[in-house]
Amino acid sequence: MRFIEEVVVDEFLPTVRAMLAEALRERDLTQREVADALGISQSAVSKYAHGDVATNDRVADDERVREAVDRVAEGLASGDLSRVGALVEVEVLIRRLEAGDLLAELHEAAMPELAGAEYDFAVHDPDSGLRDRERTLSSLRRGVRTLTAASGFAGLIPNVGSNLVECVPDAADIDDVAAVPGRIFDVKGTARVPSDPEFGVSEHVAGVLLSARAAGVDARAAVNVRYDPDLVAALKSDGAATVEFRPREYGETDAGAADDPVRDALADAGPESESVAVYQTGGVGVEPVLYLVGPDAPTVARTVRALL
């Protein structure tokens, strides 16, 4: 009796680890860096590099496996994908290949009695919430890197700081929105990011994104920059919908409440553009700010970069 998990451990994982090790080495990571990225020993990396580990040609030649390995290796090498994110990507691939697919066929070859039997090994949900969150964090990291690498971005950071946020597809509240803890600040002309993105650490910009979504805007990301009428004009000339809202006064409820200035302004305007800019020109004790809302963090970051 042989379980499909044994097929995964004995044939799939050694092959995928060997492919990942090779792909990471091709991206100029050292053996130690490859070992750290994959959570294995340097000696194991050496064995993979020298072909001392048996691999399965059917697994190695599968286009979906090759595409997943390339995506995970690129994410690990760039820092856009965490080890948890990489694990989730591979786990999802395994579950999909188990369901009457490649791994199921390898299992049948190891257990001929299974051929023709009705069984279902899809015990994990490929579209799990964990995968959505890890992909959101990965996308946000790319956006933050694009934003902070843009020459002149520090000059667009308002006194309250900037933040770039992105939410999971079915976001319901702040805890479903990832952001930079502590915001991004201008330190002597350089944009400084205090730490890696997390979920539930932004109320302000995350609230604006949730308000935009509540108004029917098909968006998952947002960033705030200092308000400048020339920036608004530039965005409008590039095809973005620009909508002004009144600033929230001291003591008013947060975004998402019954009285929501951002949501109400966008609902009234009914913007059809994929890129939306909402802004307020300030008030007593309120700094004027411009918010760019878009489909994902990298897209929003590129929009900001184009303004510089």
TrEMBL record:
Highest rank taxon of the organism: Archaea
InterPro entries named among the record's database cross-references: Aldolase_II/adducin_N_sf, Cro/C1-type_HTH, Lambda_DNA-bd_dom_sf, ThiN
Pfam families from the UniProt entry: HTH_3 (PF01381), ThiN (PF10120)
UniProt-listed PANTHER family: HTH CRO_C1-TYPE DOMAIN-CONTAINING PROTEIN, TRANSCRIPTIONAL REGULATOR PROTEIN-LIKE PROTEIN
Name of this chain's protein: Thiamine-phosphate synthase family protein
Residue span(s) of domain HTH cro/C1-type: 20-48
Native organism: Halobaculum halobium
